[in-house]
Structure formats: C-alpha cells, structure tokens
Amino acid sequence: MHFRYLKWDDRFSKGGKTPAFSRLFDLFQQLLTIASGDVAQALKWLTDLDKQYGLTRDDDYSIGDFIQELQDKNYIKPDESGSLFVPTAKTERSLRQRSLEEIFKGLKKGPQGSHKSSQQGTGTDREPETRSWQFGDDTHNIDSVGTIMNTLRHSSIDRFDLTEDDLLVHETDHNTAVATVLMIDLSHSMILYGEDRITPAKTVAMGLAELILNQYAKDTLDIIAFGNDAWAVSIDELPYLKVGPFHTNTLAGLELARHILQRRKNTNKQIFMITDGKPSAMYENGRLYKNSFGLDRKIVNRVLDEAVKCRREKIPITTFMIASDPYLQNFVRDLTEANSGRAYFASLDNLGGYIFEDYIRNRRKRVL
C-alpha cells in the first residue's frame, strides 16, 4: 500500500469545516446568478456579507485571496477592456452543475433508469420476458437457453434441428427522445413587490440544460425568453437573463415554441412555461397591443387558440404558475384545458423539483 503526503493546509483543520474557497465559491455562484452574471456586483455583495457576518473571520484567507483564486482557477477573467471581470465558460458550466445538484436534492428517491417508455420493442435494456424472434431483431438479444430448450423438444440424439420458430429474444425497453422548449417569463412582475422570481426560474433552466447535456444526448432543449416579444436564448446565456420593463406576451412565446418544435425530428415534443402573470400583450397588425388591467379577453382568446394549435400538433404545454392569485390560476386552468396539458401551481421553493419530476415522467410514455 502506498500513501501520498501533501503539504498541510490549516484551512482543513478548522473543526472539519469546508475549505474557505469552497464555502465562498458556493455563495459566489448564488450571488452571480442573482446578479445575472455581473461579477463586480456579486463580489460587492460577497464583500458586504463578509463585513457583516465575518465569513472569513476564522480563516487565514481574505476576499482578495478568493478573487485571486477565482482567476487562478479560470472562473473569472478580465474583459476586453481589462477593467472588469467576466465569467468564463467554466463558470457557466459550474452554475449549471450547481443548479442541477440543488434541484435534485429535493427529489424523492426512486428507481434508477434512463427514462424508458412503457412500450416494449427494440431498445437497449434487456428484460427477462421473451418472445418469438422477428425479422430485424438484434441477435444480441437472443435468449440462448430458451432457444435451445425449444430446439430440443423436436430434436433427437442424432439430429439437432434448429428452426426459425425456435428462436426466442428478450424484450427490451424502448427509450424515447424528447424535444423540449422551456419558456421563461421576463416580464416586470417577476421582480415586482420585492420578490425575486426570476432567479429560481433561471436555476431551473440551467439545471434542466445540464441534465439534458450530460444524460440525454438524443434530447433537445430550446430556451425562449418572453416579455413584450419572444426570442430564443442559448444555454450559455442563461445566467445573464434579466427581467425587463416588459409586459407578458405569452402568445408570442407559444408561437415561437411551436415553430421551433415543428423543425425538431423527435417524436415526443413538449413545452414547459414558467410564468407568474397573465398574458397582457400581443402583436396586432405589426403593433404591440397591451393591457395590464385584468384579463383582456382579446389577448386571452388568442393565447387559448394557440394552445389548441399546440394540442393538434401533439405538443403538450406544462405551465408552472408561481403566483397565487385565483384569477391567474383560473386562466392557467383554461389554458391547460384547451391544450389538454398540465399545470402546477408551484411555490418558488418547489419549482425545480416539480419541473424535473414532470420532465422525467414525461419520458415514460407509451409509443403506439
């Protein structure tokens, strides 16, 4: 047995505490998400918290040391002007990984798997059940014991007579692939009344992106932000999304999502929409028609029409409403009924768990 001795780091001996960099980095990532990727703002908040709560009081380690280590580990770098720090691609990946871990902490324990459908057929995971061989079946799935037993029933000592009818193959689970569009509401109400609703929405989006990128390579994820209008955003842009002085053009978001999914080859398609408000705007004859007071039937009816179009194209909409107003919830119920989709009236704390549990369940569908 061989041992490798390293230089002693006193930061590891403080009562078994997490090393200073790790503790500060976890907090820095949270602040960076809230600050929409503004490194200077996140570091200012971190410095203020250190002054107020003594985050580094028991460590021979300062915020300056932390900033230097962020640079050394390639988490931040100077911008083109050299005057400000910006996140690196490594930080963007780290934020997605942290979001995924944070969300899965709240999920219930269940069986392991890769989101199989309930339909048995050509697939990757072998089942104990068998059936007769059919042309095109993978020979790797032949049940050798069952096949030999069938052959022996009509063979003799002198003649081993294997026929096509003797062949048995193991059933396999059919793994589905899903094309998902995630819509994120960036209207002003997402930060109204001092409640931060956009940060958990971004956290969920980053976690979902990380899940698909690492575990479901055949899946696709497109992300749409919607306010006065709707536009596609890349996965790398997620940490930097900001709420604007926008109304809520739900219609534009659903139209764009449906058009994106029309181009996807996946059999299974779905839309996830995170919102906290009613549809309050739409484009009419090239101009933005808006009404922030109550539920404008002109806008609502157009949104419900779009939900019906999605239903006809077999695109279910799952709405995650993060507001408790009864009349807003009634709108979501109308939308869900028109689309034959699903709706969750989730708290901010449970938003991530709901989305991921539903995402995984939606993979488990019968392929007819």
User: What is the CA–CA distance across the termini?
Assistant: 57 Å
The CATH topology label of the largest domain is Rossmann fold
Strand arrangement across the biggest beta sheet: 8-7-6-9-12-13
What CATH architecture of the largest domain do you see? 3-Layer(aba) Sandwich
CATH class of the largest domain: Alpha Beta
Fraction in beta strands: 15-25%
Structural class: alpha/beta
Helix proportion range: 25-40%
Describe the structure.
This protein is of the alpha/beta class and 368 residues long. The chain folds into three domains: 19-87; 117-175, no CATH class; 178-363, Rossmann fold (3-Layer(aba) Sandwich), CATH 3.40.50.410. Helices cover 38% and strands 20% of the residues. It has ten helices and 13 strands. It has helices at 20-34, 39-53, 63-72, 89-104, 144-154, 198-215, 250-262, 297-312, 326-339, 351-363; strands spanning 76-78, 85-87, 116-121, 125-132, 168-175, 178-185, 220-226, 230-233, 268-275, 281-284, 287-290, 317-321, 342-345. The strands form four sheets. It has a six-stranded mixed β-sheet with strand order 8-7-6-9-12-13, sandwiched between helices. A three-stranded antiparallel β-sheet has the order 3-5-4. Strand 10 and strand 11 form a beta hairpin. Helix 4 (89-104) crosses helix 6 (198-215) and helix 7 packs parallel to helix 8. The longest helix has 18 residues, at 198-215. The radius of gyration is 27 Å and the shape is flat.
Features:
13 strands, single chain, 38% helix, 368 residues, alpha/beta, 3-stranded antiparallel beta sheet, 3 domains, Rossmann fold, flat, 6-stranded mixed beta sheet
